[in-house]
From TrEMBL:
Domain Acyl-CoA dehydrogenase/oxidase C-terminal span(s) in chain numbering: 270-380
InterPro entries named in the record: Acyl-CoA_Oxase/DH_mid-dom, Acyl-CoA_Oxase/DH_mid-dom_sf, AcylCo_DH-like_C, AcylCo_DH/oxidase_C, AcylCoA_DH/ox_N, AcylCoA_DH/ox_N_sf, AcylCoA_DH/oxidase_NM_dom_sf, Mito_Isobutyryl-CoADH
Keyword Oxidoreductase: yes
Protein name per UniProt: Acyl-CoA dehydrogenase family protein
Domain of life: Bacteria
Amino acid sequence: MSSQALRRLPVAPHEDAALLARLSARFAETAADHDRDGSFPRDNFAALQAQGLIALVAPREHGGGGASLDAARRVLAAVAYGEPATALILTMTWLQHHAIGRSDSRWPAHLRERVLRDAVRDGALINALRVEPALGSPARGGLPATTARRDGDQWKLSGHKLYTTGIEGLRWLSVWGRTDEPSPRVGVFLVPRDAPGVRVVASWDHLGLRASGSHEVIFEEVAIPLDHAVDLRAPAEWAPDAGSQTDVDAHATQQAWMVVLLATLYDAVARAARDWLLGFLNHRAPSGLGAPLASLPRVQETVGEIEALLRTNRVLLDEAAAEVDAGHAPSAADSGLLKYTVTTQAIRAVELALQSSGNHGLTRHNPLERHYRDVLCSRIHTPQNDAILVAAGKGALGAATVR
């Protein structure tokens, strides 16, 4: 798709609500099949690319849509409502595009241009590969075992990564690794997915988001040019509060984008669950009752509680996106609390839907049990709940000692 075509797309997607509704419905038609088989939703990404939505967040100067966080979040909600694994893979690509496309990005200009133009032209996907068997999540600290060895005018990369979301459809891998230098540097190595020595271990067999294809990847002496080490620093320089104020602000903004998009995804799953429940309650009329379940006050009260949870989520997410788009990114601690609140309430909303539907909600013939399995996955994304709450608690207690 040409950059001209992309610029004609609505960067305020609510202006094209019909398009988003069609995409949601289309993705929902095959969501159960992808969940059952654990199959990669290739057709969904073809449909997204046909509308220029894979490069929606890429900067306009690179041919992308240059979308705001609010605009991206509204598109993502529609995708996740239909098929959340597709939305998760899209989120990871958008987060990379946002980070790469910043004016203060440390990426070499030619690599930034190549990755972003690939997305515009071909719908090429990219994701960060960070988690390892021994390291766990890098957010918890520690150095990666994935190692780059200098060999003439190349790096030779070797290592083992877990949870490589979307690997079956990625073109670019942004790999977190270290150098084998006496004083190791840590950072990002850009690896083509089809590079010799990249091997996928198809191990993903998860409770939820089964279509995300988050398999393991082995790197065996993978050769990449020296300039594909796009951002290497001393380990201490990767601390969130290290570097200039510009670096600190950029980290806070990137964290806010991640949290708002991920929270939007799981809120959309809860909304899909709510909508299924409403249809069920209005049509299910037990013979002993002689009226639909929706006529019962206790059922109405439960649905009202679900509405309260989802309304709060919508207000929080709308407000957060507006603040970020206005240049006022929240602190990392506040972003964490947003994720905790929205995802906890999304899980609670689906639990209430299951409570109201009984056995009907738990059968695999209906989508509610799938929505429940998917929404539970919200807990495992960085930052995790324990880290969020410890940071918030320490901050509140520290502030209290000052007063």
